[in-house]
Amino acid sequence: MPGGGPRSRIAASGSAPPYGHERAGATLSLVTTSTPAPPPATAPTPAPGTAPTPGTGHAAAHHGELLQGVFADGAGRPRAGLVTLPLDGPGTRAEFTPSPGAPAGAVAVVPAGRTKAARAARLAVAVCAARTGRPARGGTLRLAGSVPLGLGMGSSTSDVLATVRAVADAYGLRLDPGTTAGLAVRAEGASDPLMLDERPVLFAQREGRVLEVLGPALPPLLVVGCLLAGGAPVDTLALPAPEATGPELRAYNRLRDRLRRAVADGDAALLGRVATASARRAQRVLRQPDFEALVALARRTGAVGVQISHSGSVAGVLHDPAAPGAEARADATRRALAAARIPYTRTFAAGGPRPAPVHPCRCWAERVRGGRMGP
User: Fold this and answer.
1) The pLDDT of residue 321 is above 60
2) Residue 38: C-alpha distances to residues 44, 175, 177 (Å)
3) What CA–CA distances, in Å, run from 44 to 131, 134, 179, 348?
4) Which of 140, 224, 321, 356 has its CA 20 to 30 A from that of 240?
């Protein structure tokens, strides 16, 4: 989950700055997961007073970060940024049903208490109504999904993005990633880059913009997931902002350089060292008592490193699937987690081409519902 750094300067219109690669000599015009919205002139123009139809949206979660800290942007200014580890599976489904005659700010959320999603719905209604010329109407927002709350898996961003997509769908629109990122930052104060595709990016989470596209894909990884600190939730926005001193900037920029090289070379071992170093630096704030035990068991089982949520308790032991005996090492990791009394959650593949599932296992949410943790 996102945390730390300067507050957003996204304009009131909800549009984010263009997605750009800030390294000298290279630009990226757009990073997108879906077809950009058509120009307003091509949007359907219903009769005055016609209510939008119900809309649906979906957004994925993630598995914490590979790198998070403070980095120099293209102008040398310090910016909080992060690189997430994608995760297929858990996500949020949203359905927005407009109510004829309801004021734009009247959004009822089911289940109750998802205040960030409700705020996102109101913001998205205003943007979509302005783009289509339709009335801005409130309604009912229903959320469903399997993203555990407070563990650093992007549950808030998943709720917010699914909501924005559902509202846009109700208005017959597909919003571009820049607009979606702007709405997400305004709705929750900071946002994970779940509105983008799975290309690894360094993302300024409190500004809703890409600082750098690191390459086409992460090196292939086999991840054995777990929970540190007994799965205790973390209040993301209560964490202190990362320091922007010269030594901190230099340290994080070295990690950024190494991660860029790991992506370019498809080097899972180098990526693992970067993720471990970033996770260790985060312990100055998180102070998870079982972190060093996780690093030690990763070393014993032949893993290339560990990664964590820098604002939660979810963590992963990273293996190189191309290394001999990778699945046996993953099995050894699960046994070592059980011996260390670190709750195991799931095993999954990330990065590279999308492979077939490597291990049949049930997700964390299913284990909780069944009253059982561990392998």
Assistant:
1) yes
2) 10, 9, 13
3) 10, 10, 20, 42
4) 224
| Three-state secondary structure readout of 36-71 | CCCCHHHCCCCCCCCCCCCEEEEEEEEEEEEEEEEE
- DSSP for 68-81? EEEEE-TTS-EEEE
Phi, psi of 299 (to 5 degrees): -65, -40
- How far apart are alpha carbons 47 and 126 in whole angstroms? 18
Lowest mean pLDDT among 76-80, 258-262, 301-305: 76-80
- As a whole number of angstroms, the distance between CA 200 and CA 271 comes to 12
Nearest to 124 by CA among 12, 14, 11, 7: 14
Who contacts 48 (Cβ-Cβ below 8 Å, separation ≥6)?
none
Mean pLDDT of 130-141: 94
Question: pTM of the predicted model, to two decimals?
Answer: 0.79
180/200 Cα distance (integer angstroms): 18
pLDDT of residue 285: 87
Write the pLDDT tens digit of every residue in 31-53. 333 333 333 333 344 444 454 58
Hey, what domains does the chain have and what are their CATH numbers? 40-213 (3.30.230.10), 221-369 (3.30.70.890)
Q: What is the pLDDT of residue 262?
A: 98
Rounded to 5 degrees, φ, ψ at 323 are -75, 145
Average predicted confidence (pLDDT) for the chain: 82
Residue of 110, 81, 58 lying closest to 6 (CA atoms): 81
What is the SS3 assignment for 346?
strand
Q: Token pair for residue 367?
A: 């284990």
CA 359, chain centre distance (Å): 23
The CA-based diameter of the chain, rounded to the nearest angstrom, is 68
| Residue in 124, 195, 128 with CA at minimum distance from that of residue 157 | 195
The count of residues in the chain is: 375
Six-digit token string for 333: 């990791």
Residue 81's CB: how many other CB atoms inside 10 A? 31
Closest to 138 measured CA to CA, from 175, 101, 110, 173? 101
